[in-house]
Amino acid sequence: MRILFISQTFPYPPDTGSRNLIYHWLEAASRIHDVDLFLTTDENVPQQRIPGLPRLEVHLCPIRVSHTLLGRTLRQANCLFRSVPATSLILTPSETQRQVMDLVNNNGYELIVLTENVVAGFASLLGATAPVLLVKHSVHAVDAADQRRRQGEHHPRWMLEEHIVKRFEAESCRAATVVCCVTREDADQLVQRYRLSNPVEPIPIGVDLSQFPCRGNDPNTKLIGFFGNLTWGANVDAVRWFCHEVLPLVWRTHPDAGFVVLGPGSDQLRSLSQDARVRFFGRVPSIPEAMKSVSVGVTPIISGTGIRFKLLEMLSMGIPTVSTNLGAEGTHCVDGEHLLIADNAETFARSVDTLLRDAALRQRLAASGARLASACSWESIYPKILEVFDLACRKYQQNTIDARVSQAQS
């Protein structure tokens, strides 16, 4: 089968949730299929070859974005007129759409995979040409509602943007042959929100065990750790909540406890805490190396949907972890067996306190968490990815037959 992936994100290095997911979907596909990647992006792409995927052909379509006042004003007006979010509008100008259509017509792709929300608009453009598989990293409407709450609950701009996102998400999901989510909860929510009749399949995320090996020892420190992409609003919400609501309670019993925050964008968040016990390191060369002295990991996720890479990666490294229920969603973790789960500041702080005090509990959770993570390797997910490719092709063929029958009957 010949497959075209369309993406805004260059998936290498796979050091964020989005890059990680796209990279491994590409690897699963390219093992047995011929795969091209069409990259429409306003970012600088230093290379067009992806290590580990030598057969992958990358077609780069750079986008120039006007940042002038006039350019931004025209873009916002166009977003309102077409009901398309700004990021999607930027990445799918008419010239880019023409290039994609030429590529599809010239190469006869048997499947098109749209890898993220921002390129979901191609579903309507390409749905009549080939099977379209839309990969949803999150429920975009929930992300927009969270953004409205951050920026102003009743601010007209963010209310309007949320409306546009909902409409765009509904149209793109309905136009796709098959929609994939990373959790069953996200899949159910999309079906209920938009009354989807096309298949919506949960394909879980995995963990690269070679990149996050189990450390095998308990550092026995008073150091708490978090890592993730801190340019993502839900992760910022998590760190803010932990710093402001949870840490002061932890410090009542552990005044010497420290908190480290790692990952892209984290060095820009120092304003969240001026306390010297809280340190923001930004992007680091190696997460396992940077987390080696951390005794307790936290995933205090209080907003958003979708990807939970950081939790599985912490468990894979053997770091005993405290999470909210939302942070553990879709991972099959059991409270008290693989980690501790708490949803308000007081119980979250007590759980952190318990782990800081109890070395035996840390060791037990570290071992069971690592066993669970080892069963969630990307290698174990690849067959499910390949199965959903076949499902999209079968569904497209059935839709084509049904349309012909309906046309003949009319």
Brief summary of the model shown:
This protein is an alpha/beta fold. It is 47% helix and 14% strand.
Describe the protein.
There is one protein chain. This protein is of the alpha/beta class and 410 residues long. The chain folds into two domains: 2-206 and 379-409, 3-Layer(aba) Sandwich (Rossmann fold), CATH 3.40.50; 223-374, Rossmann fold (3-Layer(aba) Sandwich). Helices cover 47% and strands 14% of the residues. The chain is built from 15 helices and 13 strands. The chain has helices at residues 17-30, 69-82, 86-91, 94-107, 122-126, 140-151, 156-175, 184-194, 233-253, 287-290, 309-316, 325-328, 345-357, 359-374, 378-409; strands at residues 2-7, 34-41, 57-62, 111-114, 132-135, 178-181, 200-202, 223-227, 258-262, 278-282, 296-299, 321-323, 340-341. The strands form two sheets. Strands 3-2-1-4-5-6-7 form a seven-stranded parallel sheet, with helices on both faces. α11 (309-316) crosses α14. The relative contact order is 0.11.
List keywords for this structure.
410 residues, alpha/beta, Rossmann fold, 2 domains, 7-stranded parallel sheet, 6-stranded parallel sheet, 13 strands
The number of helices is 15
- Sheet with most strands: 7 strands, parallel
Backbone structural class: alpha/beta
CATH T-level topology of the largest domain: Rossmann fold
Average pLDDT confidence is 93
- Report the CATH superfamily of the largest domain: Glycogen Phosphorylase B
